[in-house]
Every structure is written in C-alpha cells, then in structure tokens.
Amino acid sequence: MATAPITSRLALSHLAPGALQSEIRAMSVACDQMGGINLAQGVCDTPVPQVVEEAAIQAIRDGHNIYTRLDGIARLRNAISAKQERDYALKYNPETEVLVSSGATGGFHAACMALLNPGDEVVLFEPFYGYHVSTLRSLRVSPVFVPLAEPNFALDTDAFRAAITPKTRAIVINTPANPSGKIFSLAELEVIAEVAQAHDLFVFTDEIYEYFVYDGQRHVSPATLPGMRERTIVLSGFSKTFSVTGWRLGYVTADARWLPAMNYFHDLTYVCAPSALQHGVAAGLEQLPPSFYTQLAAD
To answer: Cys bridge to 245: 82, 225, 239, 257, which one at CB 3.0-4.6 A?
Structure first.
C-alpha cells in the first residue's frame, strides 16, 4: 500500500512570511551602503548631557553591572515618577505604577502583551509609526487605520467614530507624532477620551517626542484628561531627550492594575533594562534644570 508523502514540519511560522525589515531600518542600511546622509532614522547628533554620560560611566566602575529589579532601579523609577508629576501633575507610585523598559518600543510590546488578545482591533491614526503597527500584527492584533485630514493632519471625528467596532479594544496615539510631527490638540484629545470612555477602551500614548514642540504648540498627555488616567498607558523614554538612542531605555507609567502583567512580559523578553545606563539617565532627570528641556527643540 502506498504511503502518504511526508510533509516537513520544518517551516517558518505563519507570521514570518509577512515579516519584513522596517522601512526605517531598510533605508538606514541603504543609506550606509551609499555613504549618504540619513534622514530616515531618528539618530541624534546632539551630544549626550555630561551629567548623564559621567553617571553611566561611574555606575559601571561602581559595579552596577548585574541584573536590576525587573521594573528598573528604585532611583530611576522615583525620578520618572517625579518627572511625570512635574510635567503633567500626574502622580504615579514608583513601586507599583512605573516600569523602566528596554526602550519605549519594549514598553509598548510588553503593554500589548499584557492588555491585548489575538483578534482584537486597535485604532491607529495615519500617518502612523511603523513599529506600532508591526508590534500589533506580531501579536495577531488587527490594526485599524483612521487617516488624518490633510494638510494639517486634523482628526476626522466622523471617521474615527466609524472605526470603532465591537472588536475594538484600544486606541494608539503618538503625540508629538512620528513621522508627521502632528501634536494632537486638547479638543482632539477630548474627542478621543470621550470615545475611549464610552466604549471602555485602553489608550496607548507614545510621547517620546514630548519636548520637541514648535510654533507655540503645547503637548498634552491624554492621561491628564478627566477619567483617563486609569485607562491610559503612557509610553516614553530617553533616546531623544538625552541623545542616547543606542542605550535602549524607556518607561511605562500606568495604573497599578496593569503594571504587574506588563512587568512579567518585559521580564520574559528583556529581563531588565541595561543596569548602569539606568543610573545615567536617573542622574539626568535628577540634576538637569528645566531650561535643558525647553532648549531641546531649539538645539
């Protein structure tokens, strides 16, 4: 009797055939090959603040080279908590509501793992940051795009409301936005907040460019709006602020109900953020004056 042909089980996952290198990375590689000027990736050419640099070096020499607590060193969690209260009057308990992550990207991945399920839908505004979309798809979550209206990338409230379905679980906001530079206005954020509360949705807000604002604009964190703190996951980091993109240090601030699960998934993927470098950015948060942050955009 003829036997059925054996089908090899050695194959890529269902996700892998559609996984391509990000446009940002692909353009950077092509630029390097050509010896060109890279306008594709947010590589800072401003110097690392001296206090940040020296504190990281000293931390290495002082022996801070082993694992930290999975959510980061206490010194940095305290500094992040103080920074959020200083900038936005948002109070986060550094013991239960702050995660030091391996970049804002690592924080977003951990938050998505903790709060979203395969088959969920998440609304994003277009133009979007590609890593947000790719992270969602890697977790089998469906991105739903709402184009912003040209020429100023205004929120189309009708299109936004129409994008919400029974499968919608969250909204992703990037403000100030990469790649458009858009800053969501208070009025636009109030619409988003109203929809989020009406449909009981999470809001992920990526605020990595929070100090890069121009033309008299003001960055508003969605977590500051009434009723939004409990459902808003704030993502940010130090790559742009301190010109340390290669250090991979970010953070998440969120309600204490959500942080333990995020900590678990961040630990599973990264174990912890780089130990000595945490001391460097903590020193920056502790010692740099307010004028440093207002000068960033001009520099």
So the answer is: 239
Residue 116 in any domain: the answer is yes
CA distance 99 to 110: 10
CA distance linking residue 240 with residue 210, whole number of Å: 10
Say what the pTM is: 0.89
Task: Express each pLDDT in 233-272 by its tens digit.
Answer: 999 999 999 999 889 999 999 999 999 999 999 999 999 9
Closest CA to 205 of 183, 227, 179: 183
**Please, which residues have CB within 8 angstroms of residue 12's CB and are 6 or more apart in sequence?**
none
> DSSP secondary-structure letter at 48?
P
Domain enclosing residue 267, as ranges: 70-296
Here the CATH number for the domain that contains residue 218 is 3.40.640.10
Distance CA 52, CA 79 (A): 13
DSSP 298: T
Say if 30 falls within a structural domain: no
Secondary structure element (H or E) that encloses residue 37, with its range: none
Q: What is the pLDDT of residues 202-242, one digit of tens each?
A: 999 999 999 999 988 999 999 999 999 999 999 999 999 99
Sequence-separated (6 or more) residues with CB below 8 Å from residue 43: 245
Q: The tokens 């986060």 sit on which residue?
A: 92
Residue in the block written with tokens 């092509």: 30
Element (H, E) at 207: none
56 found inside a domain = no
Domain presence at residue 169: yes
How many structural domains comprise the chain?
1
